[in-house]
Write a structure and sequence with these properties.
Helix content is 70%, strand content 0%. The protein contains four helices and no strands. The radius of gyration is 18 Å and the shape is flat.
Amino acid sequence: MLTTMTYSSTAENTANKIPRPMNSFMIFRLEKQREISDKCPGANHRDISKIVSKWWKELSEKDKQRYVFEADKLKLEHKKM
């Protein structure tokens, strides 16, 4: 038996939705995006993403740990909501 699902307006869903916490890469990207934007004001998001993803891949697990720790903290805060 199939049921029909109804959805309320997108604006209403968005207003009530709690945003997901950032993961470790997103925290890293946000930090590095600002750094790149300061040095290269005309850089677009596509170019920034390419640079940042390359940096992330080259980062050691030890250096990534700081971002993983921050993401875990945000995840715990999110669960409390």
